[in-house]
Design brief:
Number of helices: 16
Largest sheet: 8 strands, mixed
Strand content: 5-15%
Oligomer: single chain
Radius of gyration: 21 Å
Distance between the termini: 48 Å
Length: 407
């Protein structure tokens, strides 16, 4: 049973009564006549062969209110792109697959790269950025939702609850973040959020003192959720990281651009499970190790823009404070697991905290050693000013790919 408690500085929309899905979808269909809706799905080709995406598409095929579905396809050759077109062809909604590795979109990427306007590294951030550009280019949607393609427990009610706050014209929200309990297979998951992000925010508060930005970030129940929705105008001005800091970077941009009463979070699922990343404790360029470094740097960069001055001693203090707080969280989650009859491995949890602690320091050192680093992808407003016909080029490329390679 959901609670109605409001914590932090943003509105929390709970699941208080398990409202019937057909009621939500009827309302959304009505709202869609005034405020058309789009869904963005950033995907690797490998996810088409995994256990999650096909059931997701079966669920989406039943959604009555979407005007458009935009799929960003990464790491696919020509035959795999053809396979993807056939795979998604069961969707009755208007949909397009952006072949990010195809020659036409690569040509656009090179044009922008020559002007230092393209994402600098492949990954989810780059995929999402081009998909959002395409949504702007088509103008088919006023409200946009985005969710991952590896959700093993997917039900289309997740999408309905996710997009409702920005689709309902009686609400004034510009951005909505999804949240859920990361409990599956008899254990608590979500280690990066539980054992890195929240303890790090609390440590930063303790070391740096009260800050509006840290209060804002601490208001989100699951800050690393890959599910969020927004009104189309939001896309124009956001500057997001191209690395694992995408979700934290999105929240930071919303904090910069909008007042708190235009932002909310919503409970979108009773249970949620997806593909789990390896720890990769010995490789700072992979798995949860890289994720923890990128996320930490994203937060440090944001704080620096607000006038916080960092040095090596500051990061040593942050690391030590984080480590103590995170270990206390391990005890908290152990007790939470035990009262609910869930498994809990203290050893693996504390190993994760030790790795995250090292990576907080690594992130700080990396931040100090690269003062000229600009990891954010430029806003689409800036891209349009430099290449006024970029949207026409993007739509033409996607349509040409679709026409040429559809069987």
């Amino acid at each position: 049973m959901g609670d109605f408690y409001q914590n932090g500085v943003i509105t929390t929309l709970h699941n208080l009564c398990d409202r019937p899905l057909d009621e939500l979808e009827q309302e959304l269909t009505h709202y869609g006549r005034r405020r058309p809706m789009s869904l963005v799905l950033p995907s690797l080709y490998s996810e088409l062969e995994g256990p999650a995406l096909s059931p997701i598409i079966d669920q989406l095929a039943q959604v009555p209110y979407l005007s458009e579905i935009v799929i960003g396809l990464d790491r696919a050759d020509e035959q795999q792109y053809r396979n993807a077109l056939a795979f998604f062809d069961r969707l009755p909604q208007h949909h397009r697959v952006l072949w990010n590795d195809g020659p036409r979109l690569r040509e656009i990427d090179k044009l922008l790269s020559d002007l230092d306007l393209a994402p600098r590294e492949p990954g989810k951030g780059r995929n999402v950025w081009y998909c959002l550009g395409y949504v702007l280019a088509t103008g088919r949607a006023e409200s946009v939702a985005l969710h991952d393609c590896d959700i093993l427990t997917y039900d289309r009610s997740l999408l309905a609850r996710l997009i409702y706050p920005v689709a309902n014209p009686n609400f004034n929200y510009e951005f909505c973040k999804g949240y859920y309990a990361r409990v599956a297979s008899g254990r608590i998951n979500g280690r990066v959020s539980r054992l890195l992000v929240t303890p790090l925010i609390r440590a930063l508060k303790k070391v740096l003192g009260p800050m509006e930005y840290l209060d804002f970030m601490d208001s989100f129940r699951y800050p690393l959720a890959g599910e969020f929705s927004f009104r189309r105008d939001v896309i124009n001005d956001i500057r997001i990281p191209s690395d694992w800091g995408l979700e934290v970077g999105m929240l930071s941009e919303m904090n910069r651009n909008y007042s708190h009463n235009r932002i909310c979070q919503v409970d979108i699922a009773q249970t949620y499970d997806h593909k789990h990343q390896p720890m990769s404790a010995e490789n700072a360029e992979a798995g949860l190790s890289k994720m923890s470094i990128d996320i930490s740097k994203s937060m440090f960069r944001k704080l620096a823009t607000q006038g916080v001055v960092f040095n090596t001693e500051t990061f040593r203090t942050i690391k030590a404070t984080y480590f103590r707080i995170a270990l206390d969280f391990v005890e908290t989650y152990r007790n939470d697991a035990l009262i609910n009859g869930l498994e809990f491995d203290i050893h693996s949890e504390e190993l994760a905290v030790e790795m995250f602690s090292r990576n907080v320091m690594r992130a700080g050192e990396d931040f100090l050693s690269k003062p000229m680093e600009t990891p954010f992808i430029p806003s689409w407003n800036r891209v349009i000013s430099a290449v006024p016909d970029v949207f026409d080029r993007l739509v033409e490329a996607v349509e040409a790919d679709t026409a040429e390679f559809s069987s």
